[in-house]
Specification:
Elements (H helix, E strand, L loop, with lengths): L4 H4 L5 H23 L5 H26 L5 H24 L5 H21 L9 H18 L3 H4 L1 H43 L1
Helix pairs in contact: 2-3, 2-4, 3-4, 4-5, 4-6, 5-8, 6-8
Length: 201
């Protein structure tokens, strides 16, 4: 009997290496923000560049994994962890620096952590695939964080804050709405699995 693709593909491959690099970049990103200390100087731009590169590796490792058949069990676990570490650290650091309301950070993190835990809980009933709304949520969250990280106030004044705040508000709304949708999916998945087991009993 042949092994599954995930078993045949070596864990040490370019897609997984990029995922690990993204995880390693998280403390570097945090250090740049701490070193800048709200001065919007060189370290702030280095933090922006690090965040941008990390986000690009997220797209790149996914594209490589799918196009070259490099999907592994390690990648399935490590990739979402890397994403949440990067997004979560950015939100927390922005709140610590007083540039983002804590309630926004808390709402987004509670949703992300809660949905991740829920996925593991209901995995016995089936896998919840990422929805279009979930993918849109990730894009809007990333854009909002990137706008908050960019030191644009000196160029655009209050307009920079309003633009960033508007995109972040959209990110919060999409985050909450898609979170509710995933909860409903989990309920339907569980109910469907129980119905199947009841009919087969």
């Amino acid at each position: 009997m042949s092994n599954s693709p995930a078993e045949r593909v070596p864990t040490l491959n370019i897609a997984n290496v990029l995922t690990v690099i993204r995880i390693v970049m998280v403390p570097l990103f945090i250090w740049f923000l701490v070193a800048d200390d709200g001065r919007d100087g060189l370290f702030r731009w280095l933090a922006v560049a690090t965040f941008a590169v990390a986000i690009y590796t997220d797209k790149l490792d996914g594209d490589l994994a799918r196009s070259r058949g490099l999907i592994t069990d390690f990648g399935k676990i490590a990739d979402p962890i890397a994403d949440k570490l990067l997004i979560g650290s950015a939100l927390v650091m922005l709140s610590i620096l007083g540039e983002l309301w804590w309630w926004v950070t808390i709402v987004i993190l509670v949703r992300e952590i809660g949905i991740t835990i829920m996925r593991f809980v209901v995995i016995r009933y089936g896998v919840m695939a990422a929805s279009r709304g979930g993918k849109l949520k990730t894009v809007i969250q990333t854009l909002a964080i990137f706008l908050f990280l960019l030191p644009l106030t000196s160029w655009l004044g209050d307009w920079a804050w309003w633009i960033s705040a508007t995109v972040m508000a959209a990110a919060v709304v999409i985050t909450v709405v898609t979170g509710i949708d995933y909860v409903l999916q989990a309920i339907r998945l569980r109910a469907g699995a129980r119905g199947e087991s009841g009919r087969s009993a």
